[in-house]
Amino acid sequence: MNRFMTNIIHINDFADYIGDNQDMGSAIFHAVQQCAKQPNTVLSFPQNTYHVHPDRCDEQYLFISNHDHSLKRIAFALENLSDVTIDGNGSQFMFHGRVMPFMLRNCKNVTIRNLSIDYERPFFTQGVVLDASLEHVTLNIDPEEYPFYVEDGIIHFYSPDEWDNTYIKWFVEFDPKRRAPAYGFGDSNLRTQQVKAELLSRDTVKFSAQFRQIHTVGNVINITHEQRYNPGLFIDESENVVLENIQIFHAGAMGVIAQNSRNISLNQVDVTVREGSSRVVSTNNDATHFVNCEGLIKLENCTFQHQLDDGTNVHGMYNEVSRVYSERLIEVQIMHFQQVGVCIYRKGDRVAIVDKDTQLPKGHATVTNVEQRNQHFIELSVEAEPGTQIHMGDIVENVDRMPEVEIRHCRIGDNRARGLLIATNRRALVEDNHFYTSGSSISSGTETFHWYESGAIRDLTIRRNKFINCGYGKWGDGVIRIQPKFQNPQEQECLVHNIKVTENEFYTFKPTILNLFCSQGVEFSRNQIRRSTDFQPFGPLKHCMELAACEQVVIKDNHFEGFEESELIQADSRSSKSLITTNNQFAKKGDGEN
């Protein structure tokens, strides 16, 4: 943006008064409208705390991938804008009720910077465990910070501004000292149960249900009671988006979600709990998520921690052929309920026709026209390449709309679930990051029967990262886990290709560093692996390398401290045929390099 031609719009010009919980929804709406009229604009907010209530926000019905579609109130509804910067100058934006902070749709060259996002009443409730069994949990809950009431055996979580919710998704136990998921625990999934609540005192509630494990007295339980309605920032059909110096202390769904967009850069975007807060959770779901994006996704100098799902997830979307009208006209169905309404095709895109059982391409075609009938079905006119036949039940993948990925100098951990989920057929680089996740730190698992997430790896480099005590919860076996999922696993051509894991440091209490399935051309080299005694392993002890249905795996020049050579590899017969291991060093604990 040319600074000599920049128009500066000040939010003060649209607000009679700022402060004391004054609702800024209307002022922001009119300021954004003015940005649409003036190119090369900076919308500037003097450093302050800005409160936004849902009453006067923009309203749209949105289909957001991996979220629940609904009518949403949006504070910053940026549509069809070019060359615009939103600069908070260090301001805090405090949201009340069900408000989605930012939407970018059909935008180009937009920067959002220097601000924080939080909610006065979060979309979760937490309490300290006073008593527990497999049939009940008694919690001490602060009713001022997390308003609730109990009526006829049902607990109501509410916000004084807008919502009243009786839905309970799960209980997740946190260690308050570490402010991280408790060692050895997974989810107590309660969404299919009727949970009975009994009010024992104004701040004490007894919950009765069937719990998977006995929760620990003194630990904190996070109760998730919100669907995936409102992410912090939603980016759709946009290009060249920059997010920098943003803190997302809370959002009711994901922190940042982008779909069908090109070239997105996050620099110093932190999803974390506010310093000094008693909360143990930041966002209710993934810190960041990218669906059928293209160009370059770049994450640098970011911190993703305390969120209730993964640090980032990069993937495409599989659709299923539901009708074949002719060799040039087919209908595809969007299969997962949190993907409906999202069309991933444009005229000229090259798509793969994929076998549902193996996820291997049977042929390719070019899209010549797209007709979206409704949120579930899309008609595609196609020009199939010679030899390609399309049948009902086949899977369609848009192989053009996939991004390159670069993730550097980020910190990811203290969260429920995993670190990075990467599924793309383009180059992906993960280097110089620090992982301390409760599940697998880096994972990839495409499949065609539940989430329908596509993007089998073709070129992934994992270099110079630190992995510290990862996997202390029950969200993935292996610090690095490459496990495409098949409905009918079988000996077949490898789906995943070209993975290089080199010059990393692993400090781990669990043996399994690398868990590979159906992968070809993997190098694990020049890594330092030290055994940790910070946690006790749980579950059956396994090997450092677990290989199944793999080919051309090389494990060389690694240094293992505190491991026996007999613990190195477990490989099936197919993996063993082309497996190469050479020059791996083993030392007793304390004898290794510093």
- Count of distinct strands: 53
- What is the share of helical residues? under 10%
**Helix/strand/pairing class, anyone?**
mainly beta
Distance between the termini: 48 Å
How does the overall form come out from the CA principal axes?
globular
Report the radius of gyration as a whole number of Å. Answer: 25 Å
Residues in β-strands, percent: over 45%
Largest sheet at a glance?
Answer: 23 strands, parallel
Mean pLDDT: 95
Low-confidence spans: none
- H/I helix tally: 2
Question: What is the strand and helix layout of this fold?
Answer:
Layout: E1 7-10, H1 25-37, E2 41-44, E3 49-52, E4 58-62, E5 70-79, E6 82-95, E7 100-105, E8 108-119, E9 124-132, E10 136-140, E11 148-151, E12 154-158, E13 164-165, E14 170-175, E15 180-181, E16 188-189, E17 196-201, E18 204-208, E19 220-224, E20 233-236, E21 239-248, E22 256-259, E23 262-271, E24 288-291, E25 294-300, E26 303-305, E27 312-326, E28 329-333, E29 350-354, E30 361-372, E31 377-384, E32 395-398, E33 403-408, E34 411-413, E35 420-422, E36 427-431, E37 434-436, E38 442-444, E39 453-454, E40 459-463, E41 466-468, E42 480-482, E43 496-502, E44 505-508, E45 514-517, E46 519-525, E47 528-531, E48 545-548, E49 551-556, E50 559-561, E51 569-571, H2 573-577, E52 580-582, E53 585-587
Parallel strand pairs: 1-2, 2-6, 3-6, 5-7, 6-8, 7-20, 8-21, 20-22, 21-23, 22-24, 23-25, 23-26, 24-27, 25-33, 26-34, 27-35, 33-36, 34-37, 35-38, 36-40, 37-41, 38-42, 40-43, 41-44, 42-45, 43-46, 44-47, 45-48, 46-49, 47-50, 48-51, 49-52, 50-53
Antiparallel strand pairs: 4-5, 9-10, 9-19, 10-18, 11-12, 12-13, 14-15, 14-16, 14-19, 17-18, 27-28, 27-32, 27-39, 28-31, 29-30, 29-32, 30-31
